[in-house]
């Protein structure tokens, strides 16, 4: 069922350009304590943070989660940062399986564990006042046909959507290269299969658009605009799923950022460099400088 064919819409969403709200992902700052990471981002001038729930940053499985979340909420408030909760921690549920178990796991107990984690993330997001909860489908397990995989995904995500509706926090599922849901077209397949539930939105990763979508990144932004709930951004090359610092890939960012601003999107646009934590503070500085310059270059002439 997975396909890279784009899904067009007739809905026009372009409005007066909105200032972009820039963030940086804590999965690219794992060598820093969370308080230090948040302080760094505030000092650099970021508007917010993509907060990945993981053992080193607001562990979702450790005791006293509500109290720890409350402390993080106060810290965010003191620093003037907003947040999106991200759930892509590599080994938070299983120390031996990257991103396992997923919503597609052959074991019903495994799928249930992932569902519980996402429901917990919704509560954390509500307590933090977050814009959205990010998630992804996972890779189709060996020996599993597409129909079975889609059915598992639909069943496993329904309790998460119910929790999101109750909490008033949207779910932003991310098309991820190599996953069952890997393209914008796949997002639309899930959305329509579930009856277009209001809490279900889209995480658009700009690098992934360059990696595998048939349309350009700026065209992807325009097509996805009605469902955008979270945006991740980094550089990337065609056909290679490798998150790169800005300037090391093939993306022309000024038109992408101009297209994003023109949609009226008001969530965070979060730099996603999870394999560069060793240089996180310096890359955070370089990234916001690059993006500010690209925004200026892409802005329409007065």
UniProtKB/TrEMBL annotation:
Positions in coiled-coil regions: none
Domain Xylose isomerase-like TIM barrel: 40-293
Molecular function in Gene Ontology: isomerase activity
InterPro entries: IolE/XylAMocC-like, Xyl_isomerase-like_sf, Xyl_isomerase-like_TIM-brl
Organism in which the protein naturally occurs: Streptomyces peucetius
Name of the molecule in the record: Sugar phosphate isomerase/epimerase
Keyword Isomerase: yes
Key words of the record: Isomerase
Pfam family, one: AP_endonuc_2
């Amino acid at each position: 069922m997975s396909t890279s064919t784009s899904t067009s819409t007739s809905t026009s969403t372009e409005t007066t350009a909105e200032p972009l709200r820039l963030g940086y992902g804590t999965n690219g700052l794992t060598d820093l304590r969370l308080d230090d990471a948040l302080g760094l981002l505030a000092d650099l001038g970021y508007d917010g943070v993509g907060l990945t729930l993981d053992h080193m940053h607001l562990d979702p499985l450790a005791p006293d989660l509500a109290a720890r979340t409350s402390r993080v909420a106060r810290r965010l408030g003191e620093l003037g940062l907003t947040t999106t909760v991200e759930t892509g921690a590599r080994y938070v549920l299983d120390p031996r399986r990257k991103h396992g178990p997923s919503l597609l796991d052959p074991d019903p107990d495994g799928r249930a564990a992932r569902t519980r984690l996402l429901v917990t993330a919704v509560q954390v997001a509500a307590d933090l006042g977050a814009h959205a909860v990010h998630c992804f489908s996972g890779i189709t397990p060996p020996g599993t046909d597409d129909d079975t995989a889609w059915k598992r995904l639909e069943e496993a995500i329904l309790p998460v959507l119910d929790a999101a509706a109750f909490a008033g926090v949207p779910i932003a599922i991310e098309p991820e290269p190599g996953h069952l849901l890997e393209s914008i077209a796949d997002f639309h397949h899930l959305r329509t299969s579930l009856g277009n539930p209001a809490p279900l939105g889209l995480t658009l990763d700009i690098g992934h658009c360059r990696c595998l979508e048939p349309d350009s990144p700026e065209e992807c932004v325009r097509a996805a605009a009605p469902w955008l709930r979270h945006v991740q951004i980094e550089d990337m090359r065609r056909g290679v799923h490798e998150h790169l610092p800005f300037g090391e890939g093939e993306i022309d960012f000024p038109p992408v950022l101009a297209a994003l601003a023109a949609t009226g999107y008001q969530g965070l646009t979060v730099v996603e460099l999870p394999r560069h934590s060793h240089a996180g503070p310096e890359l955070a500085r370089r990234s916001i400088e690059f993006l500010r310059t690209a925004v200026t270059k892409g802005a329409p002439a007065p």
